[in-house]
Amino acid sequence: MLPGKTISFFVFSIIIIFILLCAPVALPAQPSQAKSPQAAPLPAENMQKILQEMLETRARAVLTGADPAPVYRMYDTSVKLGRWALSHEQSKLHFIQSWAQKRGVRITEANMTLKIPWSRVREDRAEFVVHQTLALGYIYPDQPAVVNRFGIGTRHWIELVHRDGRWLIRKDFYTDGLGDDTLAPKPTPADGAAFTGRPPSAAPAQGSGSAIYDREGAARYADKYAGLAWGAGNDHQYNSRYRDLNGQGGDCTNFVSQCLGDKEGGRLPMDGAWYYRYDRNGGSGSRAWVQTEAFASWLLYSGRSQRIARGTFPELNQPAGRFPRGAVGELQKGDVIGYEEKGHIEHFAIVVGTDSRGYPLVNAHTVDRYHCPWDMGWDRKTVFHLFHINDSP
């Protein structure tokens, strides 16, 4: 879980989203009894098509060199929440364009699908709960034929309003791994190109010697249960054996613990501090299983891992001292990254491989990520903790 989050209107709104997601059935569109001179009621399927087109336009704006103006025109700036939603989107687009430029890549693909589990349509207003699955692809200039694809999954509560003959976004509450999964109000990516090189050395083969950790199994589990993110398996559903902690502080640490310890995953043995108790209602995890700071302490002092390094992006990304490939280049599949802000670790992700140039990729929950560049969405002041999981006791 994520400690230290300031309770704010934004977080409150995110909690509302997950309350709505618990509804057992989708609500049908409700026609209004009032007469409106602005617009006649539209069927829910028509409104869903309008929303689909809007979100596809937003996805295309992520591409390197894309004109963001069509996106900015989609917002109702006559009200405060409409202006806030526009500012949120502007900040996200600025972050990812800046990230791509600084890392020396070009984003060349952006494809989106969505599901709408709940909607309510009136004459001049429509509300939706949206599950969005976004696939992005980037290339290195010297490898134009090789596209590195990754996925992001987001949960939205969106309100559209009909004004001046057009449908506009008045509200859109969500957290996006492309630029705001951080305590910084307007995050800025750290300077520096992605230092790449040969991938880390292969981990010991499963079952060899006295190995107690299955790295390949941990990565397969992370891919299967990466939720709404493009690329994930299990029909984009979490593992139902575990409680979903989104809306209760965050599911990131719970997910990484699953990857390490589940029998489908890394099969790292549980102990008296780090464990999960299963039951028909989803069970519950120990503090070290679900809470970021407690999990970090367990990693440090249980003997199950060692911290390779702690530092900002420039300190970990570039060759220095005992790390000729940069400290982050020492990470192997199945290792873990902690993300510290304002003195506290706020997030965890698991390393699942590297891109075509050896840049580490991670999977995570809250926000759902699949094979995402390890620093995507994080501010230049973020401090990263690189943990190597020990293969042997």
From TrEMBL:
It comes from Desulfofundulus thermobenzoicus. Signal peptide: none annotated. This is Putative amidase domain-containing protein. Residues 180-209 are annotated as: Disordered. Residues 213-383 form the Putative amidase domain. The lineage of its organism: Bacteria, Bacillati, Bacillota, Clostridia, Eubacteriales. The chain crosses the membrane at residues 7-27. InterPro entries: Amidase_6. Keywords: Membrane, Transmembrane, Transmembrane helix. Residues 197-209 have a biased composition (Low complexity). It comes from the Bacteria. Pfam families: Amidase_6.
